[in-house]
Amino acid sequence: MPSYVITGANRGIGIEFVRQLSADPANTVFGLVRNKGNSQDLLALEKERANVRVLEADVTDAPRLRAAADEVAKATGGTLEYLINNAAYVQKERFDYDPVTYGEKGEDAALEADLDQNFRVNVLGVVHTTNAFLPLLRAAAKHTTARVITLSSGVGDVDLTLAMPFAGALPYCASKAAVNMVVAKYAAKFTDENLVFLAISPGLVDTSTSPPTPEELKGAIAFITALHKVYPDWEAKPLTPTQSVTAMLKVIPNVERKDSGAFVSHLGSKKWV
């Protein structure tokens, strides 16, 4: 019975992973959230499906993550086949700022705060979460291929950044480039074990729960316009969470040890949209 832990499972891509994976009663799916009180849809899914369990832990809280891993271990006999690092911080304010803009506006404190928050959640959070569940994954790897899947973003690809070119969203893009290296480092560490690490971009996905602010809309238009220069045949239409997760679940189970440490798109390639 394959077991999955999905972080950031209360909404968007995270809850869609839980929904699609738990549709197979043979799977045991753990949705990890920061606050159960803000996870009503996920809790409803837990009541509906016997193979769904909701756990509470912040990905930046290492002791609480280890406690969550202990809960999973009790339910699975000490193993875990899949960890999906989905939780992330997506910056809304100052999204269109490039490195120079912070300086021009004299927003040095904002620069430091933005970089700190993006790296704390998107990079450090992945390390803490992976380390917490690593004993369970290694136990599973003695019998099957265990996989750690980390959701990254195409904006973490240096080649795409230069091709667009897109200078905005510095903290977010830098954090995604950094987490790609984190994934590669784990892959380098575990070359002798049946553990696979993969960074995957979900594509450009609409996970919004409210209309964008004027500032957010301005940043989105600038980004989509730049992206369209690289992909002129792209319809410039974001994916739904359902479409994104469906595509990723065609890639994830087929990733083998030879692929460990790679960074790919939801299509299993370097085509980001």
TrEMBL record:
A cellular component annotation (GO) from this entry: cytoplasm
PROSITE patterns listed in its UniProt record: ADH_SHORT
SUPFAM superfamilies attached to this UniProt entry: NAD(P)-binding Rossmann-fold domains
Keywords tagged on the record: NADP
InterPro entries assigned to the protein according to its UniProt record, in alphabetical order: Fungal_SecMetab_SDRs (IPR051468), NAD(P)-bd_dom_sf (IPR036291), Sc_DH/Rdtase_CS (IPR020904), SDR_fam (IPR002347)
Record protein name field: SDR family oxidoreductase
Species of provenance: Phanerochaete sordida
Family as reported in the entry's similarity comment: Belongs to the short-chain dehydrogenases/reductases (SDR) family.
Membrane-spanning parts: none
GO molecular function annotations of the record: oxidoreductase activity
Stored CDD domains: carb_red_sniffer_like_SDR_c
Signal peptide positions on this chain: none
